[in-house]
């Protein structure tokens, strides 16, 4: 399911499936994109930041057109203890690899991978980003 911002409308709460992973998309070419994500973060329950949130940054292949500071993006990942993934959606191979990575994260967050929890996976992702 896609939403352009949070909070989600409450009139369909009873029909909404369980939310296992929230991927915030940030277009590196749009300051509005980052501003919208920051505003939406206030509507996410704190328990989701225990491995069930990630930031997906698009447009990284066009650093000459960046409107968003990379430090601001890295800071979001640190402040919210959530992994930051980078993707160039216009390149099919990278787009497919990113989709597969997100799917694997979703499987872990949904509890479909025995022996791996969203919390331990999130911690592993953060440690690998530090290396």
From TrEMBL:
<dbReference type="Pfam" id="PF11111">
    <property type="entry name" value="CENP-M"/>
</dbReference>
<dbReference type="InterPro" id="IPR027417">
    <property type="entry name" value="P-loop_NTPase"/>
</dbReference>
<keyword id="KW-0137">Centromere</keyword>
<keyword id="KW-0158">Chromosome</keyword>
<dbReference type="GO" id="GO:0005634">
    <property type="term" value="C:nucleus"/>
</dbReference>
<dbReference type="InterPro" id="IPR020987">
    <property type="entry name" value="Centromere_Cenp-M"/>
</dbReference>
<protein>
    <recommendedName>
        <fullName>Centromere protein M</fullName>
    </recommendedName>
</protein>
<keyword id="KW-0539">Nucleus</keyword>
<dbReference type="GO" id="GO:0000775">
    <property type="term" value="C:chromosome, centromeric region"/>
</dbReference>
């Amino acid at each position: 399911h896609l939403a352009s911002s949070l909070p989600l409308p409450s009139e369909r709460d009873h029909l909404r499936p369980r939310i296992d992973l929230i991927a915030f998309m940030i277009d590196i070419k749009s300051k509005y994109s980052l501003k919208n994500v920051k505003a939406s973060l206030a509507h996410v329950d704190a328990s989701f930041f225990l491995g069930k949130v990630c930031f997906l940054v698009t447009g990284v292949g066009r650093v000459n057109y960046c409107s968003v500071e990379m430090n601001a993006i890295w800071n979001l990942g640190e402040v919210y203890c959530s992994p930051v993934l980078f993707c160039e959606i216009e390149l099919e191979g990278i787009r497919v690899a990113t989709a597969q990575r997100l799917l694997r994260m979703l499987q872990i967050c949904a509890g479909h991978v025995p022996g791996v929890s969203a919390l331990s996976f999130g911690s592993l992702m953060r440690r690998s980003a530090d290396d």
